[in-house]
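Minutes, project check-in
Item: structure for the 147-residue chain
Input as provided by the requester:
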Amino acid sequence: MFLATGFYVGRIPVAPGTFGTLWGIPLAWVVWQAWVFSWPLALILVAGFAVVSVPIADKAAKAMNAKDPGSIVIDEVAGYLVTMLAVPFSIKAAIAGFVLFRLFDILKPPPVSTLDKGLSGGLGIVADDLAAGIYAQVVLRIFLHYF
């Protein structure tokens, strides 16, 4: 529960996903440092975080007896890391990535919504956030290129 809820940040009664995503910002900085040093290492870190998030989210959801409880935020962190992967880290990029990720995570455009509804357990909890992270990354790259 400690990891699934982002050190209990997910238990904040208002906007737990938004507050939980904040944990992704320092982790994205670490991943960027890894990218500068070795891009395969950065890929392994993000993929590893995503893979580990699935059983953690699954176990927490089962313990809470819920399909996708809002207090589980490890999936938001994984999605934000996908958003920021290989994006040069800066305050502007971190904030824009944060806003874009939250937007796509909340709106859930297809196929994000399909993943959210079609998959169950920890995979369902995490997969839609990873897809939202991909959407956010594409838009973030366009944004950073022009602004």
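Outcome recorded: The first helix runs from residue 16 to 21.
No further action items on this chain.
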